[in-house]
Hints:
The protein is α/β, with parallel strands linked by helices. A 9-stranded mixed β-sheet has the order 1-2-6-7-8-12-14-13-11, covered by helices on one side. A 5-stranded mixed β-sheet has the order 5-4-3-15-16, with helices on one face. The protein has a two-stranded antiparallel ribbon with strand order 9-10. It contains 9 helices and 16 strands. The chain has one domain: Metallo-dependent phosphatases (Purple Acid Phosphatase, chain A, domain 2), CATH 3.60.21.10. The protein binds fe (ii) ion. The site of fe (ii) ion (FE2) has 7 residues, from loops.
Amino acid sequence: xxxxxxxxxxxxxxxxxxxxxxxxxxxxxxxxxxxxxxxxxxxxxxxxxxxxxxxxxxxxxxxxxxxxxxxxxxxxxxxxxxxxxxxxxxxxxxxxxxxxxxxxxxxxxxxxxxxxxxxxxxxxxxxxxxxxxxxxxxxxxxxxxxxxxxxxxxxxxxxxxxxxxxxxxxxxxxxxxxxxxxxxxxxxxxxxxxxxxxxxxxxxxxxxxxxxxxxxxxxxxxxxxxxxxxxxxxxxxxxxxxxxxxxxxxxxxxxxxxxxxxxxxxxxxxxxxxxxxxxxxxxxxxxxxxxxxxxxxxxxxxxxxxxxxxxxxxxxxxxxxxxxxxxxxxxxxxxxxxxxxxxxxxxxxxxxxxxxxxxxxxxxxxxxxxxxxxxxxxxxxxxxxxxxxxxxx
Length: 393
Ligand SMILES: [Fe+2]
């Protein structure tokens, strides 16, 4: 039934969006004010990335030179999270303009959103506007869902949301195997030659809250609530993909993206008696800071152990905690908080009253070299804030 209802809803949502754009033009920009795709200067980038092949749970891409041969240089990923696109026209425009600035200046080969992106009242229409906005930029992009994205674990509205964005040419997101938890468990393989992988990106739906239906299966106590965890079949799928990719390409490095952080992020920080947070000496901290507890599941289903055993994944990227933005190295694995990029949610201003030039809004840049080694960097929205005029003496 989903495909039929989805087609009807997608058609009507696109029609409503088109009407909105006509009204916006006829009203000379006065109505409706929500049209961020009309008001944000996004620019257009050329990409030399192309899709080589795809199947149910993976898409393989590569950069090509002008002669049509696969290039083996650096590959740049811009990742960001928790845009929390809501219903305030000024704040949604601001978030998208600053995001567009980062994209145009850093010129990534791929953009990854790690959830809690589109949460507005007209979410399904805004999903299409968001996808069309990204298409205008012209760079390949992808998304995993956050805990706020849809109230269903697997249902029509979540299906529609993913279908509405994944239909677009530059969106690499896939539903993934039907038998897995949620929607959007898939991998993106980046080739650096016909026969070798520069990197593989594993994407996961990390769910929402611990549901009663999983308590028996995972032996979870009745009083354990809170955020969700990756399910056994997702971990098995990850192990299976590593094995099949290794068989095809030999040893390769990989990265992992999900919304809710793994429980191992907790090894990086502890809360002090005064309520603030400090880093522990269990991890090496490469950058960033911590201002809230790790919003992970209380239940550890073992993905981190699988990462250690499989010896492929070098970094995990999460979102969810808007005022943490550190990168910690735990047992040799980078545990990274993507920079958040939303304003219609809590941040350093709402929680601590900090001046905006110290907020964490921005993007994370991952530069992958030809051998698959990574370098990370933060880019902050504050670099685009207008400088305050100097006071006259
Ligand atoms: Fe969030």
